[in-house]
């Protein structure tokens, strides 16, 4: 009796030691209801856990796909379309993805780097973001500010930046253009410039070059 009350305090036993049939039936019924409720709660918990696991799995798939950025991009249609745009629209002669430069113990990574010599004499930095935010825009500004330090051989070139995003809010669109960077979208594995014809980019470096 004492043990039962310890593990089931919500079901008080009668003060006398002998239970009547009515009391026993009531107790059994209560325990049955409690057991059914516990099973129902456990079933609901399992279903909720399965749904959470599925969401985590899907999120991991998305992050994995977007996180690899040019791992998948170079294998699909986006990178060829990007190269075509950089060559035809911006007249870039040299284009390469995933550039890592190390100088004096410091490093800088570029998602895509392109440049042209001769009369064009320009360089472009492309940064790809799954979801563009202000931190991504500030990162591009830091890259452009450190350009001469890591790529002194292109110091004489006029350069500009392109931010390519899978997802970009209207606020980030406006901020990107306000900071002077081209905006591009990756849609259906295609790289599409999303800046109006009237857009005037912010040039860094040799701004006298035309």
What does this 3D model show about the protein?
- With 210 residues, this protein is an alpha/beta fold.
- The protein folds into two domains: 2-63; 71-205, Trna Endonuclease, Chain: A, domain 1 (3-Layer(aba) Sandwich), CATH 3.40.1350.10.
- Helices cover 44% and strands 25% of the residues.
- The protein is built from seven helices and seven strands.
- Strands 1, 2, 3, 4, 5, 6 and 7 form a seven-stranded mixed sheet that branches.
- α7 (170-178) links the parallel β4 (158-167) and β5 (182-187).
- The longest helix has 47 residues, at 21-67.
- The N and C termini lie far apart (95 Å).
- 21% of the residues are buried.
- The model is unreliable at 63-67 (pLDDT under 50).
Task: Briefly note the CATH topology name of the largest domain.
Answer: Trna Endonuclease, Chain: A, domain 1
CATH architectural arrangement of the largest domain: 3-Layer(aba) Sandwich
Q: Please write the string of helix (H) and strand (E) elements.
A: HHHHEEEHHEHEEE
Beta content: 25-35%
Q: Which structural class matches the secondary elements?
A: alpha/beta
Whole-number count of domains: 2
Largest sheet, in brief, is: 7 strands, mixed
The total of helices stands at 7
Mean pLDDT: 79
First CA to last CA: what distance? 95 Å
Residue share in helices?
Answer: 40-55%
Principal-axis shape: rod-shaped
CATH C-level class of the largest domain is Alpha Beta
Uncertain segments are 63-67
- Number of E-state strands: 7
Radius of gyration: 32 Å
Assembly state = single chain
């Amino acid at each position: 009796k004492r043990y039962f009350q310890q593990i089931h305090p919500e079901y008080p036993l009668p003060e006398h030691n002998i239970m009547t049939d009515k009391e026993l039936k009531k107790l059994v019924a209560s325990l049955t209801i409690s057991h059914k409720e516990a099973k129902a709660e456990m079933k609901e918990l399992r279903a909720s856990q399965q749904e959470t696991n599925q969401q985590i799995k899907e999120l991991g798939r998305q992050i994995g796909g977007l996180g690899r950025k040019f791992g998948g991009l170079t294998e699909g249609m986006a990178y060829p379309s990007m190269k075509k745009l950089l060559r035809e629209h911006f007249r870039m002669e040299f284009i390469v993805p995933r550039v890592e430069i190390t100088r004096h113990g410091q490093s800088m990574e570029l998602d895509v780097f392109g440049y042209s010599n001769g009369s064009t004499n320009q360089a472009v930095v492309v940064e790809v973001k799954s979801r563009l935010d202000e931190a991504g825009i500030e990162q591009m500004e830091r890259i452009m500010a450190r350009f001469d330090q890591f790529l002194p051989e292109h110091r004489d070139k006029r350069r500009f930046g392109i931010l390519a995003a899978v997802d970009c809010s209207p606020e980030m669109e406006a901020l990107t253009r306000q900071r002077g960077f081209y905006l591009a979208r990756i849609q259906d594995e295609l790289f599409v410039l999303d800046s109006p014809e009237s857009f005037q980019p912010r040039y860094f470096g040799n701004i006298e070059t035309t």
